[in-house]
Write a structure and sequence with these properties.
It holds the Pfam family RelA_SpoT. Pathway: Purine metabolism; ppGpp biosynthesis; ppGpp from GTP: step 1/2. Helix content is about 55%, strand content about 20%. With about 220 residues, it is of the alpha+beta class. A 5-stranded mixed beta sheet has the order 1-2-5-4-3. A hairpin with a 4-residue loop joins strand 4 and strand 5. It binds guanosine-5'-triphosphate and magnesium ion.
Length: about 220
């Protein structure tokens, strides 16, 4: 087997840095779009549908683990094709309807490509997990070419986010094999979170109607 030289390693390191930068730029571009939406929405409707956002790049370590788990070939091209969540954006909204507003906003931006939509709100996972997942391709102008870079976007309410964060912690605390009775409790908690979301949505609609009547 041929030995790797220092130059080979340097070249690989540079390529990896450039590869990860592409994903970072895609997140930066989405961040700007989200900021525009927030400010414009505030101005037009006097309220902001987004509670908070979280942008994250997969660490090289967890990327390697996933490549290994998925059994895909270790090349930049193959990683790019098979691993869709190297760049992740999580948008936490105030109300249920805001989630679909965010989806619409992305769908209406003609330079974005929506590759996939997984609606775990209309079809929750058996454990109770809810969120809207979108796979987007974001145009990124590199110095010498245009790249469409994949970003996984998770859109959810505060209640969904609260549930998912705690479920994630419990899952890892029990080393991914959670006792049966806790699974049932978690599912019950997801149902309560969902009922709360629907109640808050009703209140929100009622308040919006009152506001509209007052202004007309
Ligand atoms: P991966 O290959 O693991 O990314 O799965 P996938 O491509 O089938 O994607 P899926 O839509 O199922 O989930 C992607 C991401 O959503 C995960 O990395 C989590 O951040 C989140 N997620 C999905 N299911 C759950 C869940 O049951 N609990 C929690 N807390 N998060 C979840
Ligand atoms: Mg994932």
């Amino acid at each position: 087997m041929s030995q790797l030289t220092t130059n080979d390693l340097k070249r690989f390191k540079n390529e990896l840095t450039r590869f990860m930068m592409m994903y970072k730029f895609a997140l930066d571009a989405l961040e700007t779009r989200i900021e525009i939406l927030k400010e414009e929405f505030q101005l037009l409707h006097d309220y902001n549908p987004i509670e908070h956002t979280k942008y994250r790049l997969k660490s090289p370590e967890s990327l390697l683990k996933k490549v290994y788990r998925k059994g895909c070939e270790f090349s930049f091209a193959s990683v790019r094709t098979h691993i869709k969540d190297i760049a992740g954006l999580r948008v936490t909204c105030s109300f249920l309807s805001d989630i679909y507003r965010i989806q619409e906003m992305f769908e209406h931006q003609s330079d974005l490509k929506v590759l996939e939509i997984k609606d775990y709100i209309k079809n929750p996972k058996p454990n109770g997990y809810q969120s809207l997942h979108l796979l987007l391709e974001v145009p990124v102008y590199m110095s010498d070419r245009l790249e469409y870079v994949c970003v996984e976007v998770q859109v959810r309410t505060i209640a969904m986010d609260f549930w998912a964060s705690l479920e994630h912690k419990i899952f890892y605390k029990y080393n991914q094999s959670v006792p049966e009775h806790l699974l049932a409790e978690l599912k019950g908690a997801a149902d309560s979170a969902s009922a709360l979301d629907r109640q808050m949505e009703r209140l929100h609609l009622e308040i919006e109607e009152i506001k509209e009547k007052q202004s007309s």
